[in-house]
Amino acid sequence: MHTTTSKRGTTAPPHATTRTHGLRFWITCVLLGLLALVMVLGATGASYEAIMAAGDATRYPPPGRLVDVGGYRLHIHCVGQGSPTVVLASGAGGFSAEWGLVQPELAQTTRVCATDRAGLGWSEPGPGARPPAQIADELHTLLVNAGEPGPYVLMAHSAGGKHVRLFAQRHPQDTAGIVLIDPRSEYVDDHMTAAEADAERAGAEQFQQMLAGMRRVGLLRLTWAVLWPSALPVTAKLPYELRETIGVFESRPGYIATAQAENASAAADNDLLRGVALGDTPLVVLGAGTSVEHTPHWRASLEYQAGLSTNSRLSIIPGSDHSIHWEDPALVVSAVRDVVDAARTSEPLAR
Fold this sequence. Notes:
This protein is α/β, with parallel strands linked by helices and 351 residues long. It is 51% helix and 14% strand. It is globular.
């Protein structure tokens, strides 16, 4: 009778070896089956995504209009009547749909225009790099070519704060007031360590890669609107259709490439911004408590920006999320209306 010798010189009966080989066989079969299932699901999801993407132009038509700004067109969506016109500028990777909780309320008392930067939302891609100064110039050209007269109250979220401040510097006669929602500034850039900056960039890239991967296999389209509030509770107030639109748009390859180009050039014009005052322009700065708690130098940055105008107000909302316009849209609407009233009456901003 033949026997099998183990590593320690002992012997194992033939039926034990047979069981081992059988177990390995079934484990291999299960793993191969799972791999095949994943491949089939991935291919099915990719086909589903391709079919759905082909119909996105019809499924998600632009709510506004596309305006030529010099060989490419930018999207602008204006509602309401009155002056000054409020212009809405999104943060990094954001676009006009994100103002869905704020724009209708503001439109009850004045005209409000939500805008998409080149390559984002419904706008066509723009040329070259995406530094803040170019974005500011494009915004002014868009408003002029769209026939929307100034002066404007400029409202921006996060990284968009640099864009509207540059707009105000370049076009002071067209700037009636400014509202900044938890804005990013050159102050934070100047005080960040190399390790902090690297970690921030890596986090943004990982998020974008996750969106791209989910999109490729159709998962984002199927799950984003449902699961997003669980991952980011502040989005729970957004209507389902709006969450779906944001997820579909912000995961497009061209969209992600534009967002990455903006991030790469975000500090390019800091020398133009550093310490440049805004005179007595009515200015409200809204800061998120969570940003102040978790982001180095954020409180000092908010104070620095509020100090750029002699007619300003800084409000830091304890416990608030970075996207204050989603979490507390009524607070944002109230702040904008205060700036609009100050611009209309030429009175100091209400404290």
